[in-house]
Each structure stands twice: as structure tokens, then as C-alpha cells.
TrEMBL record:
Pathway: Polyol metabolism; glycerol degradation. ADP-binding subunit of the dihydroxyacetone kinase, which is responsible for the phosphoenolpyruvate (PEP)-dependent phosphorylation of dihydroxyacetone. DhaL-ADP is converted to DhaL-ATP via a phosphoryl group transfer from DhaM and transmits it to dihydroxyacetone binds to DhaK. NCBIfam families: dha_L_ycgS. Homodimer. The dihydroxyacetone kinase complex is composed of a homodimer of DhaM, a homodimer of DhaK and the subunit DhaL. The gene is dhaL. It catalyses: dihydroxyacetone + phosphoenolpyruvate = dihydroxyacetone phosphate + pyruvate. Keywords: Glycerol metabolism, Kinase, Transferase. It comes from Vagococcus coleopterorum. SMART domains: Dak2. This is phosphoenolpyruvate--glycerone phosphotransferase.
Length: 192
């Protein structure tokens, strides 16, 4: 894993989120409160500004700065959840450059914070199968997209979408979609 690729990854993620801000908020409008695009665009833009200002010199410090910025700048549930992911990844990156190990620490951070298991229609339903695909040596953009698509069929039992009960079925989970962007941009930046 190379520092430059990691920085490029976060920049590509920021661009992707900002390009799809309205779409992410529309998805959240259907099963939540319509602010996911706004939350993620604000958080990632602040993250990029912090990267430019502080220019972290290690992978661990880069993830840590990303995590701290997302926790402090995003009001919605997604800020602390993505923040916990990056802070977990920062800790793991101190001892390891193995992508699977680092991403596992990331999803552990999300699950510690949000208590969601697989199959509850959250971002966890992107993270866990993506890590499995990566372990199997089969992580492509198409794999990520297929994983995200599967959240449509799930009934939400965590987060705001759970208030809708079975009416949450048939809609993509917005956090699963933004996490899909995180992993397609990771592939694009050749982080491995
Ligand atoms: P809010 O729901 O506070 O408005 P966002 O709209 O930014 O926050 O984020 C919603 C996304 O957060 C959901 O689509 C889901 O993926 C994710 N999410 C919500 N609660 C949890 C949880 N407990 N664990 C994991 N992810 C969650
Ligand atoms: Mg929301
Ligand atoms: Mg909200």
C-alpha cells in the first residue's frame, strides 16, 4: 500500500460523492430524511481541505485525519460511522499494510459504533461482502455494484429507514451506495 495511492483514493471518493450528492440525497429521501448526499459532500470536502492543509506523511495519519474530520464535520449518522471506520483503519495501518486487515478494522469500527449486523440494510451490507470478495481475489467494480444492488431487497432494521418497516424494501440503502463509491474509487486508485 502506497501513501500516494491512498491520498488519490480519498480525493477520487470526494469527487464521486460530490458528483452524486443529489442522487444520494434522493435515495435518502425515499427511506430516510433526504440529507445523505449533503452530509457526505460536506464531510468529504472538509476532509480534502484538511488533507491539503495538514499534508499527512503516513498512511495511518492520512486515515486518522480523514476519520477525525468526518466525525467532527458531519451531523448525520453517517459522519460518526465513516469516521469510526477511518479511525479503525488508521490504528490497523500502524502495524499492517494489508488491505484486508485494514478494511476489517474499518468495518469493526462501524459495527462497534452502530451495532448493525449483516442484513440490516446499512453500509455494513456493502463493507462485509466487499471484504469477502477481496479475500477471494474477486473484487471488481462490477462486484461492488452487484453488492450494493442487493441492499434493495433487504428490510431495514437499523437507522432511520427501519421506521418504515417493510416499506423500506425495494429501495437502495444510501449509505450502502456511498460505501460502494468508497470501494470503486479504492479500485480505481489501485490501493492494494
Ligand atoms: P441520518 O440517518 O442521521 O440522516 P445519513 O443520512 O447521512 O444520516 O446516513 C444514513 C445511512 O447511514 C444509512 O443509509 C445507513 O447506511 C447508515 N446507517 C444508519 N444507521 C446505521 C447503523 N446503526 N450502522 C451502520 N450504518 C448505519
Ligand atoms: Mg439522512
Ligand atoms: Mg439526517
Amino acid at each position: 500500500m502506497e501513501l500516494n495511492n491512498v491520498k488519490n483514493w480519498l480525493e477520487l471518493f470526494t469527487t464521486k460523492v460530490n458528483e452524486n450528492k443529489a442522487y444520494l440525497s434522493d435515495l435518502d429521501g425515499a427511506i430516510g430524511d433526504g440529507d445523505h448526499g449533503m452530509n457526505m459532500a460536506r464531510g468529504t470536502t472538509e476532509m480534502q481541505a484538511a488533507m491539503t492543509e495538514k499534508n499527512p506523511e503516513t498512511i495511518a495519519d492520512t486515515f486518522k485525519l480523514a476519520g477525525m474530520t468526518l466525525v467532527s464535520k458531519v451531523g448525520g449518522a453517517s459522519g460518526p460511522l465513516y469516521g469510526s471506520a477511518f479511525i479503525g483503519m488508521a490504528k490497523a495501518a500502524k502495524d499492517s499494510e494489508d488491505l484486508v486487515t485494514i478494511l476489517e478494522a474499518g468495518v469493526e469500527g462501524i459495527q462497534k459504533r452502530g451495532k448493525a449486523e449483516a442484513g440490516e440494510k446499512t453500509m455494513v451490507d456493502t463493507w462485509l461482502p466487499v471484504i469477502e470478495a477481496l479475500k477471494a481475489g474477486d473484487l471488481t467494480t462490477e462486484t461492488v455494484e452487484a453488492i450494493v444492488e442487493k441492499t434493495k431487497a433487504i428490510q431495514a432494521t437499523k437507522g432511520r429507514a427501519s421506521y418504515l418497516g417493510e416499506r423500506s424494501v425495494g429501495h437502495l440503502d444510501p449509505g450502502a451506495v456511498s460505501s460502494g463509491y468508497l470501494f470503486t474509487t479504492m479500485i480505481e486508485a489501485e490501493v492494494n
